Amino acid sequence: MKATALAPANIAFIKYWGKQDNELRLPLNSSISMNLSGAYTITTVEFSPKVTADSVSLLGGEFSQEETARVIRGLDRIRKHSGRMDRARVVTKNTFPKGAGSAASASGFAALTLSGFAALGTAFTERELTVFARMGSGSACRSIPDGYVEWRQGKTSDDSYAVSLYPNTHWDLRDLLVIVDSRMKKISTTEGMETVTTSPFISARLRAIPSRLDRCKKALQKKDICALGEVIEEDCLDMHHVMQTQVPPLTYWNDTTRMIIEATQVWRKMGIPVYFTIDAGPNVHLICEGKNEQLVIEKLKALSGIERVIQNSPAKGAHLIQEHLF
Ligand code: DP6
Fold first, then answer.
1. What average pLDDT does the segment 149-173 reach?
2. Selecting from 1.20.120.10, 1.20.1250.20, 3.30.70.890, 3.55.40.20, what CATH number does the domain 173-312 have?
3. Which of 24, 32, 105, 116 has its Cβ near the most Cβ atoms within 10 Å?
4. The whole model's pTM is what?
5. What is the DSSP letter of 6?
């Protein structure tokens, strides 16, 4: 059987950086994110007894050997769970650059997990899907449920899962994903996290996170953009502080990244409630309310060094669609 899934990327408001278990991808802390409407992956999977080897292709791009092997390990986990042996054909496409700190692995493994389970006709719950997506890439578990999502840390594989805090219709936020460099990042998130404990600041980060999670949830509940923005920026800067003090240090920002951070601070002084957050790459996510989106886009037009801007509203989680890629 063939199945196709669409899964959004997500932007973390409170970030995941570091694992308790590398194999299972159990995180050092819980995290909170919003699904993105304009940055997503579509994946079609077909298992068949006629296929002799798994094949994986990316439309408009190429997977490295390592990435292909990671996808096949994902298929193996789904096959094992379903008690099936058939090999698969996988075709996938992204609406945004892969590996540039805009979380293609999140939407990618969320789409692979849902399409894989559906293609095998295996029964599943949303929680199970989040657990399997997590084993492909931690942040992928947050792309399964709708809208605003919490990934609960957990101590075992079964209790490290994601849930929707609010549907995508809860609050009309925007994430303007400002692409300043669409090339593949040099150090992957998986590799970067392996040395997280070499930073002397990781323990302070982990102590600070529970109260940030609370503040973030309260701000989401009250739809308070200033309270949300403050905690988002605090956590982003804290994560990058940890990254930059790891051995070897991880510096993902470039001059345009820094320029946008400074511009955001100036725009705020001018009365525009817009806040930045940055994942493991140089691209900047600007968070604001829908009513201020055009104002921020106008401001961005005056800056140089920007390749393009992807406009995102809060999106539903991963879901099946009927338009197959092959
Ligand atoms: C900085 O989920 O890509 O974007 O589990 O090793 O695949 P792996 O890592 P990944 O890490 C995302 C890190 C981040 C922050 C976040 O999205 O929470």
1. 98
2. 3.30.70.890
3. 116
4. 0.97
5. E
153 and 27 Cβ atoms separated by less than 8 Å = yes
Taking alpha carbons only, the member of 96, 123, 41 closest to residue 317 is 41
Ligand 1 pocket, residue 225 CB under 6 Å: no
Do 160 and 189 contact (CB within 8 A), yes or no? Answer: no
The domain ranges of the chain are 2-169+316-321, 173-312
CA of 268 to the centre of ligand 1 (A): 28
Q: Is the CB of 196 under 6 A from ligand 1?
A: no
Say whether 173-312 and 2-169+316-321 share the same fold. Answer: no
Check if 31 has its Cβ closer than 6 Å to any atom of ligand 1. Answer: yes
C-alpha gyration radius of the chain = 19
- Shortest-distance atom of ligand 1 to CA 105: 3
278 lines ligand 1 (CB under 6 A): no
Q: Which atom of ligand 1 is nearest to the CA of 136?
A: 7
Give the closest residue (by CA) to ligand 1 atom 7.
137
The tokens describing 266, both together, are: 């100036």
**pLDDT tens, 299-316?**
999 999 999 999 999 999
DSSP per-residue string spanning 32-54 = EEEEEEEEEEEEEEEEETT--S-
What is the rounded distance in angstroms from the CA atom of residue 114 to the CA atom of residue 43? 9
Task: Say if ligand 1 is within 6 A of residue 25 CB.
Answer: yes
Find out whether the beta carbon of 188 lies less than 6 Å from any atom of ligand 1.
no
- Say if ligand 1 is within 6 A of residue 187 CB: no
pLDDT tens profile 49-91: 999 999 999 998 888 899 999 999 999 999 999 999 999 999 9
Domain made up of 2-169+316-321: CATH architecture: 2-Layer Sandwich (3.30)
